[in-house]
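Researcher: Going back to the complex we discussed earlier. I've cleaned up the inputs and rechecked each line, so this should be the final set. Can you rerun the prediction on the complete assembly and write out the structure?
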Amino acid sequence: MTTQTVLAAAGSVPGGEAVTFWILAPLALIGAIGMVAARNAVHSALMLVVTMLCLGVFYVIQAGPFIGVVQIIVYTGAIMMLFLFVLMLVGRGVSDSVIETLRGQRVAALVLGVGFAGLVGTGLHRALADSTAVGLTAANAEGNVQGIARLLFTKYVLAFELTSALLITAAVGAMVLAHIERRREDRMDQAATMKARFRPGNYPGPKPGPGVFATSSSVATPARLPDGRLAEQSTPEILPVRELTAEDTTLKGTEK
Amino acid sequence: MTFLAQEPTLADFGQDPWWLVLIKVVFAFAFGLLATLLGVWFERRVVGRMAVRPGPNQLGPFGLLQTLADGMKMAFKEDILPRSADKVVYFFAPVISVVCAVTALSVMPFGPMVSIFGHQTPLQVTDVSVAVLLVLACSSMAVYGVVLAGWASGSTYPLLGGLRSAAQLISYEIALGLSIVAVFMLSGTMSTSGIVAAQGERPEVEFFGLNVTAPGWYAILLFPSFVIFFIAIVGETNRAPFDLPEAESELVAGFMTEYSSLKFALIMLSEYVAMVTMSAFTVTLFLGGWRAPWPISIWDGANSGWWPMLWFFGKVLLLVFVFVWLRGTLPRLRYDQFMRLGWKVLLPLNLVWILVLAGWLKTQGWEQADRLILYGAVAGVVLIVTLIWPSRRPAPKPTLAEEVNDRPPGSFPLPPLDLQVPPSPRTQRIVAEREPANLADTDSREV
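Model: Rerun complete. Updated structure for the full complex:
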């Protein structure tokens, strides 16, 4: 690693680094394009994983082993895995439709994307082509990890802590919004359930089944009480109560 | 010829000629494969012994060749590809598992500097300044193998197993990573050879005015970290009692239900290689790596030359035995219990322990009086907080009579609560009248 640091500081690219780059760079590109092109969401996520892995290796060969490995652990190992988790819950076999909702949207996106990439690429190239990298040896003088730790916990400690506070707030907020847990006092045991059942105003017996004394045995047809009224309790709440008309009950002529 | 104990440093790596690198890589890979072959046999024999049955004992001496025979059988079985499977992912999932498990072996230090064909070289494939994180990265990538195997099979039980394992492995990776933090704090390095070297020193610790020579192994110095780490790696390698992704009583075989033939063999291989890798990782981080244990370490030559490899393998074998022992002893945890253990027990314990350790290390250079004042202040704060912490004792429950009197008018009528139902006079015990058995007539045959 020390030799690598020296070489990188001198501005030349050693052979191993060049070979690694030319093998992994096409892979990273294929992954990036495949992520956009793949129609299955899980395939898309896996393509992104390939790109992230390649980026991690790039960081390592550019004398930043810590950031490279952390990229693999945090982004590829944890965050993309959570993505996959959600995608798998959505269900397999769910693919994007190929129908364009806006006409010409795909072509426009392609042209704009390539144009934007060209702009950024040429801008970066013109700005950085003549400059040489300096200060890598000084930054990595006491070790890569120690150098990052020194910066992170002295100069950038406020930004670092604020970021972590923001992330924790977001996580706790999501928990508060999404998580419903009944408190221990609210949990009903058997005795409490029975008391609630026999509370005045609640009918303790079983509810009348749907279709009892009714014109049809459908689940949606409410039962009739002995005095002829409809028993509202007999149908599930999500089903609308309706009486079948004469037209509904007549034979449709399909039975021969 | 005597070797001096020679600790490899980071500068010793990357100096080998290509053939030496090849030898080391092939050795590490063969170690993984051989460990699987012997590991399956070892596990079946030990579990068999614990269940008071012989285990595999037919093929070869002590049944040693049983795994080989099983492997051959697996290779010749039909490779079934479910119709609803996602073919590419279905194929790559076991490959990812195996690659990740084997890659982690490359940074395990098997021994100190030795001489191979005239080259002084460390007994380790390679080492980097972030080697421990590399192992963590491998284990976090191995999750993909399990999850994708579950998803790509295209059926319900494997998918459930895959989802479980995603949640399980991510949760336990956090406990795993945090328990290594204490090791980093003491050793000051993240390279595996550096951690082994750091465990060779026996630090002088001032313990309330007494100068004690502390033992070097982090398993003793950092005992809480060691326990949490071991629990976490059992969860991380999907071993019993945490083998929820493949719980056969609930999920058939979990994520590997649809796999057969060589792909199934690859999954089995990755599981056992991961077990061995994680044992080697534990040995490296906490059990002194390749250093000889106490009675042997009195001998001067114990930590030089090729001997350390023997101690290393011995320790790994011991840990693999513990894995098997756990499997033979403990029942599988329920999923919510397992998650509660990870997030509500291991994680907070770990954080408190790291805080205590950091405080202890920070105050080592202080004056005696200052230190005592600080410890006293911390103890006082803890005591006060425990005293004023709100009590969780619930209010006393009303008695039954009070509850009955509190009921609103018009409630459902209650029978008297001390009612004793007398036995009904109509109930009679019915006793069947039977012919007495003729005991003397033993010759009579029933036809």
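Model: Worth noting: Confidence is low (pLDDT under 50) at residues 1-5 of chain B.
Researcher: Good, that matches what I expected from the previous run.
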